[in-house]
Amino acid sequence: MQQPEPPGPTIVVFDIDGVLADVRHRLHHVERKPKDWASFFAAIGADSPLEVGVALARERAIAGHTIVYLTGRSESQREITVAWLSEYGLPEGRLVMRRDDDRRPARLYKPEALRRIGSQGTVIEVIDDDRTVVEVLRAAGWPVTHATWMTIEADEQQSLFAAQEIDGRT
After folding, report:
1. H helices of 10-105, where?
2. 88-116 tens-digit pLDDT
3. pTM for this one?
4. 88 phi, psi to nearest 5 deg
5. What is the domain range of residue 114?
């Protein structure tokens, strides 16, 4: 017996930082105190693409899935983020960003955003690099692929974790 088609479009959700964009070159801005958030975000345009993630986004789009980019970046980075996605030829897709005043940890922000995204179709895959986010989403029943292709040193990992989970900034 054949499985019925899911209702609405099939959606694949991609995180940006650490999945599509290599943020290692700007982590030094948030490794010290006080953290230099202005410089950290000003350097978004200089992120290199992570080819594994970019290829995956292209494959999913070619397969006919709707692409949604769900990032912890705030609305104030929308213009530079859209330009970066375009510059590296990422598939067109909806860009979901947090409000500028939203500093919740990614593990709280992303499940709520995913519920809204899921109301518009069937989320068949979520691709994220944040271990804590991956664990929370899996526990809630979301189909998650853990992006592990951006390797970083332990101190850089802690800086990125703090930015996502403590500071609620990316």
Report:
1. 37-42, 51-62, 78-87
2. 999 999 999 999 999 899 999 999 999 99
3. 0.86
4. -100, 15
5. 10-166
Residues in the chain: 170
Residue pair 65/9 in contact by the 8 Å Cβ criterion: yes
Residue 161 placed within a domain:
yes
- Which stretch of DSSP H or E encloses residue 128? strand 122-128
* H-run or E-run covering 130: none
pLDDT digits (tens, 9 = 90+) for 44-73: 999 999 999 999 999 999 999 999 999 999
Other Cβ atoms closer than 10 A to 63: 9
The CATH number of residue 25's host domain is 3.40.50.1000
Phi, psi of 48 (to 5 degrees): -85, 150
Q: Is the pLDDT of residue 157 over 90?
A: no
Identify residue 154 by its one-letter amino acid code.
Answer: A
